[in-house]
Amino acid sequence: MHGEIKDWNNGWYGVSLGVSQAEIDRLIALLTALRNNPDQHFHISSDYVDSGGIGDIEMYVNDADAVNNLRVSGIALPPGDSIP
């Protein structure tokens, strides 16, 4: 897995995660485990080789009444394609 923080130079930052096919399967299994056991959580952690960057991302099931500040969108589409 490869992670990057992208400074958009406007006060906001993006996080980019590149995953392998095997890591996709592992993430699906971990997300399924979260769905089945909402009291659990898991981490995506750095190898801490570089001098800085993303240290850790924790994934957990949010409380139903929690305030959301992110959302999940769909896959990227080429220009001119319609959204299914």
Account of the protein in words:
Helix content is 19%, strand content 26%. The protein has one helix at residues 21-36; strands at residues 2-7, 13-18, 41-45, 56-60. It has 84 residues and is of the alpha+beta class. A hairpin with a 5-residue loop joins strand 1 (2-7) and strand 2 (13-18). The protein has one domain. The strands form 2 sheets. Strands 1-2 form a two-stranded antiparallel sheet. It has a two-stranded antiparallel sheet with strand order 3-4. The model has no long low-confidence stretch (mean pLDDT 93).
Considering the chains and any ligands shown, give keywords for the structure.
single chain, 84 residues, two-stranded antiparallel ribbon, 19% helix
Query: How many structural domains?
Result: 1
Low-confidence stretches: none
Proportion in helices: 10-25%
Could you give a short account of the major beta sheet?
2 strands, antiparallel
- Write down the overall geometry: globular
Question: Which strand-content bin applies to the residues?
Answer: 25-35%
Integer average pLDDT = 93
SS-derived structural category: alpha+beta
**Biggest sheet, spatial arrangement of strands:** 1-2
Order of helices and strands: EEHEE
User: What is the number of E strands?
Assistant: 4
- Give the number of helices: 1
